[in-house]
DNA sequence: GAGGTTCTACTCGGATAGTTAGTGTCCGAGTCGCCATGG
DNA sequence: CCATGGCGACTCGGACACTAACTATCCGAGTAGAACCTC
């Protein structure tokens, strides 16, 4: 069970974009330079966030990415699932209905206890990430952070 | 983020082994036939559980695998982490200390909020799985299940 | 001097190779049970 | 009939190919801005 490395990238990028003034944008190249990341691949991940409706992209000079919503309306779960996909890590393939010990479909109307427990654990994970928004993240940063970010990112 | 397919296998296998009488064992071939799984690869995964101390293996005729502890002392978390490894899905590589916006090590003594939140979510996931033991699973099965499992698995 | 037009440079977007982790498979070492044999 | 030695078959354990996903990269389509020319 491993999240893509780019998960960390987009989380930091989204946090940085949340510190810009409304209307300002940062290009993929600027974000890549800010964190020393491979620009083309980062751009690909930012595209995924754009498709998910988290970021808005504008082309042309002075273009780039910005948050599509207010920071309080963007949760960490949305960001993580935008880049990693919304699939659960545990996939029940109903092996209890296969082989010598196969149960009848009639006995398997309820989801098996193992799959249910794994799903509950995943739900707990999602719930925790859904409870933290970018606004919550920004509150924990030092007071001078947004100005510094703006200066070094797009200044 | 994806768990290996074999996670489902070992969860079901451990549940089945928990239904055997004390002292009885089931071989990898028997378990593979019971669930219609590729026997050699299943054996590889059961080895991992043996190394983790969850199963005990005996060789020779009438040998096979059995639980190394009482079902109430085997949690789903232990099984999952035995086959998937104990690593967290999110790995913080401290990109905040790289690039143009690099923070000084002095400013990074506390773990960053993003990594902390991801770790908390993972902790919630682990806690849920650690709270369910094989004994809890067995209680939810129909009353006739253990006898049926024994009959079809090693009978 | 003002407006329109053209041009340039910069942006994102999708299609294309390389590398690691998981998947599937095989063969060898060790051990217990069975059978033949001898007493 | 019983004990013993040998044999055989079955078990797990580790080492070897194959596939899919993530990682990394490139080039093309579109657009905003600026410069230039004309009126």
Description:
2 copies of one chain form a homodimer. Chain A has one domain (5-154): Winged helix-like DNA-binding domain superfamily/Winged helix DNA-binding domain (Arc Repressor Mutant, subunit A, Orthogonal Bundle), CATH 1.10.10.10. Chain A contains 7 helices and 2 strands, in the order αααββαααα. The first copy, chain A, has helices spanning 6-17, 28-35, 39-51, 76-84, 113-130, 134-140, 145-153; strands spanning 55-58, 64-67. In chain A, a hairpin with a 5-residue loop joins strand 1 and strand 2 (64-67). In chain A, helix 2 crosses helix 3 (39-51). The first copy, chain A, is elongated. The mean pLDDT of chain A is 95. Chain A binds a DNA duplex (39 and 39 nucleotides) through residues 2, 4-6, 27-29, 38, 40-41, 43-44, 46-47, 50, 57-65.
List its traits.
two-stranded antiparallel sheet; Arc Repressor Mutant, subunit A; elongated; mainly alpha; homodimer; 155 residues
């Amino acid at each position: 069970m491993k999240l893509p490395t780019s998960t960390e990238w987009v989380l930091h990028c989204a946090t940085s974009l949340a510190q810009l003034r409304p209307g300002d944008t940062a290009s993929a190249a600027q974000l890549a330079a800010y964190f020393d990341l491979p620009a083309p691949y980062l751009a690909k991940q930012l595209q995924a966030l754009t498709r998910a409706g988290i970021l808005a992209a504008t082309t042309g000079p002075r273009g780039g990415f910005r948050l599509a919503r207010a920071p309080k309306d963007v949760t960490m779960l949305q960001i993580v699932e935008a880049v990693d996909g919304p699939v659960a890590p545990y996939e029940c393939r109903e092996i209890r209905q296969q082989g010598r010990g196969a149960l009848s479909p009639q006995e398997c109307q309820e989801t098996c206890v193992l799959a249910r427990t794994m799903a509950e654990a995943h739900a707990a994970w999602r719930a925790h990430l859904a409870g933290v928004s970018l606004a919550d993240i920004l509150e924990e940063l030092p007071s001078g952070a947004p100005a510094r970010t703006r200066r070094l990112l797009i200044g």
